[in-house]
Amino acid sequence: MADSKLEGMNLPPSATGPAGSNPHPAYCAPRCYADDKHVGSRNCTCKGCHGDAHGRGRKYAWDHGYLKDSPRGSRKPPFGQELLFPEEHPAPIAMPNRNKEKRRIEKIVLEAARNAGAPIPTGEIDGKEPAPDFLFDTDNVGLGIELTELLCPGNSGCVEGQSCLPIKREAVHREIVGIARKQYCATEGAQPARAHVVFSHSMGAYSTKQRKELARSLCDYVKINLNRAKSDRTEMPPGFLAIAIIPKFGDWWHDECVTYTLEDIQQQIAERISEKNKKIPQYRECLPSCARIWLLLYTRSSVTHYVPIPRQIQEWRFSFNFERVFWLVFEENRIIEIQKDDHRSMPI
Fold it and tell me: What is the pairing mode between strands 134-136 and 125-126?
């Protein structure tokens, strides 16, 4: 038998052998982009970008997948392998049309108001600015209905002159938590961690500097207390009511605390009516001279949008020039008619 010519050669392991570990993409060390460095290094041996991103700033590294918190699928192909990928532009992603989404919500609101008992006819036609949102041809008279959201007030305890609407605070809090998470993930040797945050509502608004300081405080708190028992954790940093830490990968999130009074609700109703009341002359230009114009306020169900109907609502009177004003509350599946102050008309 002839001797095998394969003996003694360094053969690759059999494809049917034991499975190895999946290769993990290397990431740039955080020190490479500390303070957003824009200075290249001739002696760079970084296995994350092989020198490609050095001197281009942290944003470039983040956009091209070289950092731990970079978006999935953003890794730039290694040098020399670009041709392995198709040289065609990816199909554009259809972004939601804000006007279409707004119209979709308005139609849901209109139907919900009907189901809740509002005397709204069927056969509506979409109105185009400056007309009301919906138009109806009823009894040759005409009807226009304008919709607007009644926002959760939450103005109690705010500094005078500052806006404390919960939806605005929620957006700021979301930004702070997002910054803190990115800072934590960019930390060398960061362990899996999720943070559940409740902000203190004692501060009405945050400057850019305060947002960065709060994000850094949150990041530092998670790093310091991740492996500590709750009883041994450091004192809660200013601006936070509670911070729960979960040793798992995942998004960081936050809850909102909303506080308001009856006066806040009454003021919010008056402001929303007043804002739309100023547009009545524009509405009438699009309608027959004898047409009626109604206003439909609505309240959504989330914490930062929800406004309950107070018992005192029937005692409140508001000045407006609409023929009728209604208020729909999704959470309660309830609609009421706002009472008009017949002794006063609102200037327009």
Answer: antiparallel
Of 104, 188, 115, 180, the C-alpha closest to 147 is 104
Of the CA atoms within 13 Å of residue 190, those in its CB half-sphere come to 24
Q: How many helices (H) and strands (E) does the chain have?
A: 6, 9
Q: Domain check: are 266 and 239 in the same one?
A: no
Q: Which residues pair with 255 in a beta bridge?
A: 198
**What domain range is 50 assigned to?**
25-79
pTM score, whole prediction: 0.58
Are 242 and 182 contained in the same domain?
yes
167 pLDDT tier (thresholds 50, 70, 90): confident
Q: Give the tens place of pLDDT for each residue, 310-326.
A: 999 999 999 999 999 99
The answer to whether 119 and 127 have CB atoms below 8 angstroms apart is no
Q: How far apart are CA 131 and CA 127, in angstroms?
A: 5
CA dist., res. 160 & res. 168, Å (int) = 16
Contacts of 74 (CB under 8 A, 6+ apart): 63, 64, 65
Q: Find out whether 186 and 193 touch, Cβ atoms under 8 Å.
A: no
pLDDT, average across residues 25-36? 64
326 and 196 in a common domain: no
In contact, 286 and 144? CB cutoff 8 Å:
yes
Pairing verdict, β 134-136 and 324-329 = unpaired
State the pLDDT at residue 117.
95
| CA 34 vs CA 47, 185, 327: distances in Å | 17, 14, 53
β-strands 334-337, 240-246 pairing: unpaired
Specify the amino acid at residue 113.
A
3-class secondary structure per residue, 246-299: ECCCCCCEEECCCCCCHHHHHHHHHHHHHHHHCCHHHHHHCCCCCCEEEEEEEE
